[in-house]
Automatic annotation (TrEMBL):
InterPro entries: Aldolase_TIM, DAHP_synth_2. Pathway: Metabolic intermediate biosynthesis; chorismate biosynthesis; chorismate from D-erythrose 4-phosphate and phosphoenolpyruvate: step 1/7. The keyword Protein transport does not apply. Mn(2+) binds at residues 79, 361, 403, 433. The lineage of its organism: Bacteria, Bacillati, Actinomycetota, Actinomycetes, Kitasatosporales. It comes from Streptomyces smaragdinus. PANTHER family: PHOSPHO-2-DEHYDRO-3-DEOXYHEPTONATE ALDOLASE, PHOSPHO-2-DEHYDRO-3-DEOXYHEPTONATE ALDOLASE 1, 2. Its EC number is 2.5.1.54. One of its GO terms (molecular function) is 3-deoxy-7-phosphoheptulonate synthase activity. SUPFAM superfamilies: Aldolase. It catalyses: D-erythrose 4-phosphate + phosphoenolpyruvate + H2O = 7-phospho-2-dehydro-3-deoxy-D-arabino-heptonate + phosphate. Its cofactor is Mn(2+); Co(2+); Cd(2+). GO terms for biological process: amino acid biosynthetic process; aromatic amino acid family biosynthetic process; chorismate biosynthetic process. This is Phospho-2-dehydro-3-deoxyheptonate aldolase. Phosphoenolpyruvate binds at residues 118, 275-276, 298, 329.
Length: 455
């Protein structure tokens, strides 16, 4: 057994897996029951990996192709997954939306697409305030299903470490279904029409997609006629990712890979560090520096080139292409000002990072109705700015990172099938940030494909 290529073992302290514990960690829950936390950590340490180290390496390789300008990264999914969202319908709808976006980008943008879900682990949320007040009652803020409940009651908002075990199980069942869909024929490119069947008549983006699907069909018939094996289209590679926020959980799922002796966080393929937890001398960056998974770091408008360079030194000292992805989230009004210096200084230093654009988190505002929302036009404008900056510098716009769902929610305003501020209440279902619905996601994919082609 010990020479199995995929045998992962629990690390001891000598590996540095727990070095983060000596450093300050922000955005961590205040668990009221520390024995229950220790018990759940021990339980998680005994569980099998959710992903294999070799799969993480494969994603690093795919991201290296993005860094070289040979592929495009599509990273998307919920702001916050919820335990009650672990259903076949929800998971299939999300996956279907990502597959449709990917078909659009691959065909209309003429670029291979690396597909990474914010899925199977995206249960923990950093928040701007520790508490929430409603009608004079103040309670701890909702920090994601891994920590506490969304319902506004003292019992539900009390952090419960048992939820970390539920996160593991929810991630496992989600990933199981995703693996079944992506390898079992559902994601077969010959299904391009089937993914759209429930959608085509009702929406302009659905109709536009249908026209593209017909072209893909023709192209596949042509390839068939040329002798390409249709089985080539049967499976797709789809990777999982989430914000590595709750370090007790991430570290309990960190294992030593027997092939290499290196540490991997086997809770997901790619782990990113959020805008609020990327302090260079804090625990999250220390943790991320120890694991070999591909790492993302969010960079907001206050990020300096010096921050970016130091992050590279900490997280990618060997300058491995694909290891580090910078997910910029500047805001539509700032991206054209802030991004060029970062890219210039990083490029001058010779690091091959992946640059992708999160056009969501710099463009959030509160509507008069009290709903947190985003304008589709701002989202689009930030992506446009991102492409303009890269074009100006001759660098590669590596991808997009979006909050989306496959359901027809009304959380972001605008889009081809326009949602107005007054519509927001109709299907506002997110537990945290507003997501693009399926139609808005497809609109975005078409527009991004055009930008990519024009690049
Ligand atoms: O997903 C993101 C963050 O949790 C979110 O943007 C912070 O939101 P808040 O200001 O509502 O806490
Ligand atoms: C919290 C998030 O983003 P950021 O860290 O960029 O604010 C998020 O991606 O949901
Ligand atoms: Mn979010």
């Amino acid at each position: 057994m010990t020479d199995s290529p995929h045998l992962e073992t629990t690390p001891d302290d000598a590996t540095g897996a727990r070095s983060w514990r000596d450093l300050p960690a922000v955005q961590q829950p205040e668990w009221p029951d520390s024995q229950a936390l220790r018990d759940v950590i021990a339980e998680l340490e005994s569980y099998p990996p959710l992903v294999f180290a070799g799969e993480c390496d494969q994603l690093t390789e795919r991201l290296a192709a993005v860094a070289r300008g040979e592929a495009f990264l599509l990273q998307g999914g919920d702001c916050a997954e919820a335990f009650d969202g672990v259903s076949a319908d929800h998971i299939r709808n999300k996956l279907k939306t990502m597959l449709q976006m990917s078909a659009v980008l691959t065909y209309a943008g003429s670029v291979p697409v690396v597909k990474v879900g914010r899925i199977a682990g995206q249960y923990s949320k950093p928040r701007s305030k520790a508490t929430e007040t409603r009608d004079g009652v103040t309670l701890p803020v909702y920090r994601g299903d891994s920590v506490n409940g969304f319902a506004f009651t003292p019992e539900s908002r009390r952090p419960d470490p048992r939820r970390l075990a539920r996160m593991y199980h929810a991630s496992a069942s989600t990933l199981n279904l995703v693996r079944a869909f992506t390898t079992g024929g559902y994601a077969d490119l010959r299904q391009v029409h089937a993914w759209n069947r429930d959608f085509v008549r009702s929406s302009p983006s659905g109709q536009r997609y249908e026209a593209l699907a017909r072209e893909i069909d023709r192209a596949m018939n042509f390839m068939n006629a040329c002798g390409v094996d249709p089985e080539e289209f049967r499976t797709v590679e789809f990777f999982s990712s989430h914000e590595g926020l709750i370090l007790d959980y991430e570290s309990a799922l960190t294992r030593v890979d027997s092939r290499t002796g290196e540490l991997y966080d086997v809770s997901g393929h790619m782990i990113w560090i959020g805008e609020r937890t990327r302090q260079l001398d804090h625990a999250h960056i220390e943790f991320a520096s120890r694991i070999r998974n591909p790492i993302g770091v969010k960079l907001g408008p206050t990020s300096t080139a010096e921050d970016a360079l130091q992050l590279i030194d900490r997280l990618d000292p060997e300058r491995t292409p694909g290891r580090l992805t910078f997910i910029t989230r500047m805001g539509a009004d700032k991206v054209r000002d802030k991004l060029p210096t970062l890219i210039e200084k990083v490029s001058a230093q010779g690091a091959q990072v992946v640059w992708i654009c999160d056009p969501m988190h710099g463009n959030t505002f509160e509507a008069a109705s009290g709903h947190k929302t985003r304008r589709f036009d701002d989202v689009l404008d930030e992506v446009k700015g991102f492409f303009e900056v890269h074009k100006g510098l001759g660098t590669h716009p590596g991808g997009i990172h979006v909050e989306l769902t496959g359901d027809d929610v009304t959380e972001c305003v605008g889009g081809g099938d326009e949602i107005f501020v007054d519509d927001l209440h109709q299907r506002y279902e997110t537990a945290c940030d507003p997501r693009l619905n399926r139609s808005q996601s497809l609109d975005l994919a078409f527009l991004v494909a055009e930008m990519y082609r024009d690049q």
